[in-house]
Each structure stands twice: as C-alpha cells, then as structure tokens.
Amino acid sequence: MPSLANDYADFRAETVRLTALLGSTSSLGPKHRKYIAEIALLRLAILIENTMKSVFCKLSCGATYIDGAAPALLARQRNIPSAVDAMHNHGRPGYRRSLPWNDGSEIRENIKFLIDPADRCHSDLVRYASYLTEIRYIRNHIAHRNENSRANFVKLIRRYYGAKVPGVTCGNMLVSSRVSPSRPLLVTYILTANVMVKDIVRA
To answer: Is residue 157 in a domain?
Structure first.
C-alpha cells in the first residue's frame, strides 16, 4: 500500500534545507541574497509540484491519509502510472493533455474523476489556491521574464507594495523587509508550504 508519510517527511526535510540556505546568506551582499532567494523559490516551486503529484497519485491508488482516514475514491487505480493515465482519460469527453500540479483549480481538475469532490482534499486545494497562484506567478517570472509573466508579477507588486512600484524584482520581493517586516516573504512562503502539505496529507 502506498504511503504519504515519506512524501511528508521528504517535503519537510527539503524545506528545512531551504530555510538553512537562506540563513547562511545573511553575511552576503544584497545582490547575492536576492539571487539565492530566487533560486530557492524555484526549488520550492518544483518541490511543491512534485509532492502534489506524488500525493494525489498515491491517494488515487488507495493510500490512506497520515491520520488513517481513507480518501473517498470514485475510481481506485492500481498504481501510479495507471493513476496518471486515468487523470488524462477517465470520465472525460476528450484527452486532458497536461496535468498541472502548481495550480489549485487545475489539481482539482486532474483528480475530479478519481477522488470524490466531497473529500476534504478538494476544499484544502481551494483554501490554498491563492498561495499556489503566488508561487506560480513568481516562479514563472523568475524562469521566463516575458510579457505574460511580468503582467502577473505586477499583480503581486500591487498587492504587497500598494502600487506598481518600478524596479521591483522577484529577488527584491522575496527578501524585502518592506513586504514582510517580521521575516522575508520567502520564509513565509516556505512556512506556508509546510502547513499546506501537512493539511493535505492530514499529518
């Protein structure tokens, strides 16, 4: 029987490493700290995507939540490859070409014919949808820096700075005390990621 415990333990271990990496940059100059913060955000985004895929594939195969509760399944799958295939095909009028794992609504779409919408994981995904959107917007702008990614990043600038402030980069936002006086925004993102995954796996 597949287990979610390893996913949760691995996720926590990786975020501890990211937090330690950020702590080790305190003696570096601002330029280097911003650059490292962007790399750490990319790693966090990839970690979230990989964990979401693994957790929801395992749930589709009948893995129980860490608290022992069983997911409410509509179509239990034999293994992870069959779960992925079913997410593309099962119950759909046509083939679902991509399976995004960094967007709350898209994850719910991936699993909606396999895991009952009444299962709590769906409401957890709704609750963390805006958080996942922020991570995706920043991740995309770090990775692509195109017109579309910039437009979405500006939405976050307006949210955190109150206006379209010129010259704000992803690195600025992630480490700035103006955005998050008590701790860098990136640290808040890491802490929130841990809470989100804990809620989803019911640890």
So the answer is: yes
Among residues 44, 31, 52, the alpha carbon closest in space to that of 186 is found at: 44
Residue 54 neighbours by CB distance under 10 Å: 19
- Give the three-class secondary structure for 62: coil
30 Cβ contact partners less than 8 Å away, ≥ 6 residues apart: 175
Q: Would residue 191 count as lying in a domain?
A: yes
The number of distinct structural domains making up the chain is 1
Taking only the tens place, the pLDDT of each residue in 35-66 is: 999 999 999 999 999 999 999 999 999 999 99
- Supply φ then ψ for residue 84, to 5 degrees: -60, -45
Nearest residue to 122 via CA among 111, 132, 133: 111
Segments forming the whole domain that contains residue 47: 5-71+127-201
Does residue 19 lie in a domain region?
Answer: yes
The Cα 104–Cα 123 span in angstroms is 10
- Tell me the residue length of the chain: 203
Query: What per-residue confidence (pLDDT) applies to 101?
Result: 98
Which token pair is 69? 């509760």
Q: Report if residue 84 sits inside a domain.
A: no
Closest CA to 184 of 176, 193, 194: 176
Cβ pair 156, 138 in contact under 8 A:
yes
Q: How many CB atoms lie within 10 A of CB 40?
A: 22
